[in-house]
Amino acid sequence: MKFHLRAMAIARFDDTPARLVAVALLLLSLQTYSGAVFADDASASSIDDTDLDALINGAGVPASPAEQPHEPQPQGDDQLATIKVGSPERSEEALASPRRRQLEEIVVTVQRREESLQDVPVSVTAFSGDFLMQRDITSFSSVAHLTPGFVFSQQFGQVSPTIRGIGADRFSLTSEPGVALYVDDIYYGRPFLPQAALSSVERIEVLKGPQGTLYGRNAEGGALKIVTRRPSDDLEGTFSAQYGSFNRRAANGSLSGPLWGSLRGLAAFAIEDHDGYIENRTLDRTVEAHEVRSGHVSFLADPADWLTLRLSANRSQQYDTGPTPHATTPVTFGVAAGSLAVPIFHPYDAYLAALEQAIGPLDTLRRELLGSIAGGRTSHDPRVVSQDLLSWTRIKSSAASFSADATGEHVEGRLILGHLSSRRNLSFDGDMTDFAGLHFIDPTFTTGRQWSAELQLSGDADLHGLGSLRWLVGGFAFDEVGTERLTMVVVGLGQADFSIPSALIAPSNIPLLQHGALTGTTWRTHQDVRSYAAFADLEWEPLTWLRVHLGQRFTEDRKLGQRSVEHPDPGQACEDERQEVVARTWTPRAGLDVFFSDGNMLYASLSRGFKSGGSNLLACGAPPYDPEWLDAYELGLKSAWFGGLLQINAAVFAYQYSGIQIETVVGLSTRVENAAQGRAEGFELQVVALPLDVLKIDASVAYLNARYEDYMATDPFQATEQGAVINVGLGEPEDLSGNRLNKSPRWSSSLNLGLTHFTERGQIDASLGVTYTGSMFFDQFNHDFAQSSDYLLWNAYLSYSTGAFELRAFGKNLTDESYISGQFTPSAVLGGPISFYGEPRTVGIQATINF
Is this structure's pTM higher than 0.90? Predict the structure, then answer.
């Protein structure tokens, strides 16, 4: 066996262009290395310029997939391999047979019907369940790293996806996402998503751009679709066990097959545990431990030739000692300027400021010594904290769905019913220190129940000389009831053994903090949501090379929010409040597709999306806010070349963003206002190629220029001193026009190289991947302390597999990069922005048995 391999390592660079050049060089080095041989004598494959014409013209490779004799495809690391577990295609004979691979056809349901991804005029990225398992992908954050333009954060169990700069950053009961989440076509309005949601998955689809016509509310930035596995006709199963860094133990398995008559069933489970990887020096333990349990069952029956019924249910629970909050706000005034945290929540910094005023500057050693005695320490190290309270999150979720699909000669019908119940408990150390004179506890309890129903009718018609028509009409109903209890507890404010200047702990504009009065304040909120929609979508094909799309959706949202506040001092509490919001919206779409060169497609589309308005229940006296709107214009290309050996997909887009819902901080509370306009332009490019039978290259890049327009706001972190009084957030409004939208990196990219070697007994797969995420801001003021640095994540995988057994080793974040995965701002006075960091380097091994 003869191997030639060129390796290239990219060290950490200080500037973005250097990193981009390094990735480009890696691509070029592989592109020029076309003489390498990665095969044995039975399946040798080497391509040079003289062989290219013969290869394209069919020397062993048919001109189209339809002309190719059916042969089993390799399981490899193709994103959407359609090989079923336990099926004959995964036999040892199939693995050992020599053949020329082609890129798999990807089937998606973006337009509410099964279509090839290359025929869908939407920018979409899809991943198969096999691909997710092979890459040890158990969360959407890993999916986002492989999808340029997609940023995903999850704090305290609530997901916050952003696509092309459009999303949301709020985490309260009344917040709404900017990207819709669907599981088996069931809309998840309350996105408390345990990581177990990605078990027993057949496919994940990431839809980019407004999907308001077919997916409705809160799909202005796009949609995330999870499609779970369906029961199989034949008995088959799989079991996998894994061990890795931080004592990670994981196992999952499934069993599927016929039960009685046409009834088939599937049962699956997933278990995962790992120890913590952040050192808490005060509690003398590690935190960020993780524990998840989930189960999934599904039943499928065909009581008649024209009718298919499916019933599914899942249940999951997750417990984490985290996420661990990190203080990232620098002191903006006084002698302690430049240290971490606003002094209100970090009195140690305030104490040092007063002490330095009296005796002069302190060196780092004396600061650390004082901190070890008095407490109040913060850390610049993302893997170390000094917190005297344990942060934790517990999530329980259950869901059930029923679908009925009826097929007629020219008309098909589908009924989808869904129910979701979720419960979240959390508590975190709000002051993020071990300061003895201050304990800030923020326990939160949230529950939600939702019901949804959707009816679809679809069909096709021959227009007799005017081409053909495909149509879809439907209706949607959604009902949700949610409650949330937020308790803020401050213990011992200003009661330390040493005194702190009162002006530093009780600014005159924050009366609730005067004399430590903020103790045991509880906010109770309740919200009822009802939404109804009707939609229609037409696809007219007047010519074989031309398609026209027209669609429209009407949505009515009704929300009723109620709030009550319990406070030790009744005079300090907000009055009980009730807010009702009603919004009616139209979200159309139009598009034109032109086919050329053997099915390749150019498309142009216009679409509109919206995010629901809501109630301001966490701020006293704040009015409700309206929906926000996004109008999108997109030009795209879907193409395949050289007999299916190369795919090039690209999109160029422009957004007009209006009525942007901005979370503003006023004193102790946050509120949402329709305060800004915005624009975004960008492009995306994906290239997937099989230059050799044993080599697959998947490269993608995204550029985004997303910014605010016509936006004036007061910086909540602007601090001014008036004698002994410190005022926070009372400065003059600033013009934020031109500032970048939250969580919108200018550049992001992904590169994956996969090698496959076939032997008589099995298959060896190796892959190396790197993802790049540019710097981005987490607030509209584009503060330096609210900006994450750009970063590279390197991942590697090596596996040996036969038809019945697979052994896999993996390493993720191989360079142990520290990066901010999410950030939010509860209050400028109560500590400022809180940051969370991604996982460190992890390695592991996994064994899988298929039967």
Answer: no
